Amino acid sequence: MHTPPRTIAGTVCACCLIFALTPLGCTSAPDRSPAGSPTLTIQAADYSLALDAAKQVLIDHRFVIDRVDARRGLITTLPKQTAGLATPWDAEQSSTQQELSDLVNQQDRVIRITLTKPAASKTNQSADAETTIHVQASIIRTRRPGWRLESESVRLSTHAATLDTNGQRAPAVLREPISEDTQLSSKIADAIQAKLDGYQAARAQSD
After folding, report:
1. If you average pLDDT over residues 166-187, what whole number do you get?
2. Does the chain have fewer CB atoms within 10 Å around its N or its C terminus?
3. Quick check: is 159 in a domain?
4. What is the pTM of this model?
């Protein structure tokens, strides 16, 4: 008996959705920082070097830098979208569950890196003053409320107009942060530390 292609495709999509919504235990990478994003501590004298290292790490991970404020110690990126298993060249995901979740949902990730000096060191840059580097990766999901998917062809799909509490027409596309990706934050923080170590070693050799 021949199974229609549409039935096969529907079965595959259903399986992917089940895996994406079900915790996978042994396949999930350990969360090194469950209470929040990781923080690095460096010497205040390496502030500029750390800023360069952070920017380069973001570029290496194929993020587009949106803003760099060296005075305030702030770096942000534009949203970066991946399709999980369908885009194996992206390295944001840390588990199979994340790979499947990004496959069945339209999700972006944004990175915010802050460099903070202790209050005393802002005016007195002593040799032992320290700067903290805080990495925060957030997942943003795009939703299309009222989207009526046509099974025959996606091009024939329609949108139902919905009204908000003020009687105004609601946006056709909604983008909302759903969680912090602390595993990606840890990955970026580790890469910044490794990049900074390389810069410091190169500087020591040139001196």
Report:
1. 80
2. N
3. no
4. 0.67
